[in-house]
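PROTOCOL LOG
Step 1. Enter all chains and additional molecules of the complex.
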Amino acid sequence: MKVDRTVITDWFKQLQDNICEDLESLDGRGSFHEDLWEREGGGGGRTRILEGALVEKGGVNFSAVSGDLPSNIQQALKLDKPDFYATGVSIVLHPHNPWMPIIHMNVRYFETGDGTYWFGGGIDLTPHYVIDEDAVFFHRTLETACKVLSKDAYPEYKKWADDYFYVKHRKETRGIGGIFFDRLAGDESRTKENIFEFVQAVGNAFLPIYNYMARQNSQKTFTKDHKDWQLLRRGRYVEFNLVWDRGTKFGLETDGRIESILMSLPPHVDWKYNYIPKEDSEEARTLLLLRKGIDWSQ
Amino acid sequence: MKVDRTVITDWFKQLQDNICEDLESLDGRGSFHEDLWEREGGGGGRTRILEGALVEKGGVNFSAVSGDLPSNIQQALKLDKPDFYATGVSIVLHPHNPWMPIIHMNVRYFETGDGTYWFGGGIDLTPHYVIDEDAVFFHRTLETACKVLSKDAYPEYKKWADDYFYVKHRKETRGIGGIFFDRLAGDESRTKENIFEFVQAVGNAFLPIYNYMARQNSQKTFTKDHKDWQLLRRGRYVEFNLVWDRGTKFGLETDGRIESILMSLPPHVDWKYNYIPKEDSEEARTLLLLRKGIDWSQ
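Step 2. Run joint prediction.
Step 3. Record the structure below.
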């Protein structure tokens, strides 16, 4: 089958459906609220929001938009023509339980009228408390997904995630990273079909990862101190998304659908002046692990 | 007396002292926690944080820093030489009571080795609920302070605040504005002394304004619904500060003291997906008033 925009779009829609269905069953209580929206310039999307028992606030969004790019973005992307088509699935889930990590996943496809195209995406994890065993499982699962493309893909995209999900002003990574990739197109070493297969492997890795995290952590008991720490860590998540995340910036500057873009923000967040966790605490240990270059897959 | 950097710096320090003393007495319960800090490149500051009865979280900061500007900033400011001296007082107070507004005040002075200098600053108000009477008092007080400089200053700096404190992606102002001014230097119509006198008038306007707001609003009873709305409005405050505020951006990009810069962020914040207040509610009325160009001083 030829991998064209229709095939890709249909697959993304199906991925959104599968993930939503499975998350509802995992959550047990919540069900997704759906908003269908249209974009003035062309296309639209399906924003789905979950406020449940496991997921305090989460979004699983699909969109497929088209039209003409603003000239500054056309220039930044070094494109000859302004017309484009972009489709993708974007997920952010903020759990109730502080022992559960925040998870983010995105797969996307971009195409222009003159046939230029690329894929992008990734999955990354932001635990409120880093749990080694979970980090290892997470990275090994991503490593396996990357093998669909090549044996070098995992280290390359793992480093890309370390560099991308970096809260520069705090000198700490957003979480334990994952994989990030952008502007992947066919070349002498891989076809468009290969890349799509890889993007599918990434999309399909989401549910096994989240189900594993829920099995491991969602029933753990927690104290008010754990919850307070979660709210502070969510503050860092907000700082990254609003200050550094290029995807969010792009959306806000190009007049995207604000509520779909900012569904990534957590439900309750705290900022405390100059909070420093006690030495040798679980919180202090987590901070030590929020840095680039840790090889969790070994 | 010659208005030089020493005179200005001393006056800013004294302003911080006066405001902190008065706020402690107004708050009744809290007292300021002070952190003295030094900057690697030169200078330092006094960050003072209040967590009290009236003020849930607030900061009153003084700093005086010097050294060489990074070359990109030197270019952006169109300066021949990199060496600079900058001093100022910066205040953000987040009140407990949703009927109390968030207030922000800043006065600052910047000077380079070759004698270039300018003043900047302003005061603006972000009510969770816009109360007409308070908005009128606030703007008239600022209008009076502006008369120290000229009769045209208020409308000009009021418009500047409307344009500056604009949450572009929400298409709403951060609050009811106030005044904002930057790069004021002496010219044929005004001396450096005139401008400093005006900046002092702005600094001195802070306490009368905040005392008035406290008298009017701090004893009002409120419900959980009012509090919930406050937490959502604080979310917009965060969005403005992290996405659009040039001062915050400048601080984060130039490796400023993070905890002093981000003291402006509220203690507890909520984000809810696509929250729309009930028609004709107090919340809906407030949203209608978050726009540019309302002449509150009339």
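Step 4. Note key features.
Residues 16 and 96 of chain A are 22 Å apart (CA to CA).
The two ends of chain A are 37 Å apart (CA to CA).
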